[in-house]
Amino acid sequence: MSSTIPFGYLLLQHFPLRGVAISLVLANTFFLIVSAYCKSFWPFVICFIFIPNFINGAISYIPIYCNWKYFPNKKGLLSGISFGAMNLSTLMFKLVSFYTVNPNDNLPTIEVRNGNSIHYYFEKNIYENVPYMLRVFAAIYFVLAFFGCLLIKVPKEYEYRPVETSSIRSAEEEQAFNGQPQVHRQTVGEWLEEAYDILKEVVKKKDFILLFVCGLFSTQIGFFMRICYKSYGFLYYRDDQYLTLVGTMMTVTGTIARLLWGGLLDFWTFKRIYWTMIISLLLFTITTHPITELGKASLYTLWVFGINLFEGGHFSTFPVVAMHTYGEKKFHIVYCILLYSFGFSGLLVYLTILTLSLIHI
How far is 332 from 4, CA to CA, in rounded Å? Predict the structure, then answer.
């Protein structure tokens, strides 16, 4: 997803904004439906993960740009709303997946031993509901996203108006003829050359390196809880419906975090916000296991919420810092690279979990 934010920037230089949004939504819906009919692993991964994430990266640039153009002095709050809405979409997926796949809250009953560890799996009749879930999700996504595209109010300075050209008119005559200045729209080659120059410039700057390191290491506990809240919680609370509810409310908390910290960034410095988040995250991380050992579901829920509350702010504050530091022209490249810090953070968490599971076996 992070790689394709610049792709969204490039598309908007050549095509109408609303047309780009609707086309991307249609493409996303198509591949979600195709994934429901995939019978093997790699086609499913390509249609459900790789291609939709590529498209979502391009789509995500559109609300960021429109919001910041209309409210230039409220970039933090508007970033919180944009990224909070993206996060809130996972709430819908959790609810749709549970009530279409496992509406009766059946527990996994198939026990598989692997060395010293035991894994539990659901019955076949539950797995068979997954294609239906994907089709329902695709339909909901299309309706919401399509009407969202129709409601987009395009900023005037970014509205795409094809310029009629003539070889016998000068640049000044062209402007008078079309009623607007000639706008240079980059070719892919020009954009790639510019992106490479921007990349060479920013990766040498200490503030960029510091931001990247902060994103890489301070989001790991949040990624761990998003990946493992259910499997870790299942060791103490064998209730799939309760843990699904925890995941749902965790999403809501993450959304609130994006709004809260993004809004505060319009009044506080990034340094103050970041230290507040990181110290609080460390306290919650250190105390998570002892709290869970008490066996009280309410405390486990509270700690999961707390971790997401202080971790979620990264996703609404970092884009604003990138914009303020490097400007609008460089933002789409800088933030694209910064997002890789979050991606690598999740990858490190996954590799850590995998390593620990192999050691345990």
Answer: 9
Contacts of 322 (CB under 8 A, 6+ apart): 211, 331, 334, 335, 338
pLDDT above 80 (res 163):
no
Q: What is the pTM of this model?
A: 0.72
- What is the full DSSP assignment across 45-101? HIIIIIHHHHHHHHHHHHHHHHHHHH-TT-HHHHHHHHHHHHHHHHHHHHHHHHHHH
Q: Is 135 exposed, middle or buried (0-12, 13-18, 19+ CB in 10 A)?
A: middle
Sign of the Cα torsion 263, 85, 351, 297 reads positive
Q: If residue 329 lies in a helix (H) or strand (E), which one and from where to where?
A: helix 314-360
Asked whether the beta carbons of 285 and 37 are under 8 A apart, the reply is: no
Instruction: Judge whether 152 and 21 are in contact, CB under 8 Å.
Output: yes
Q: What is the pLDDT of residue 1?
A: 60
User: Using one digit for the tens of pLDDT, what is the confidence trace for 177-190?
Assistant: 344 444 456 677 77
Residue 180 has φ and ψ, to the nearest 5°, of: -160, 155
Give the count of alpha carbons within 13 A of 243, CB side only.
20
Under 8 Å between Cβ of 87 and 255: yes
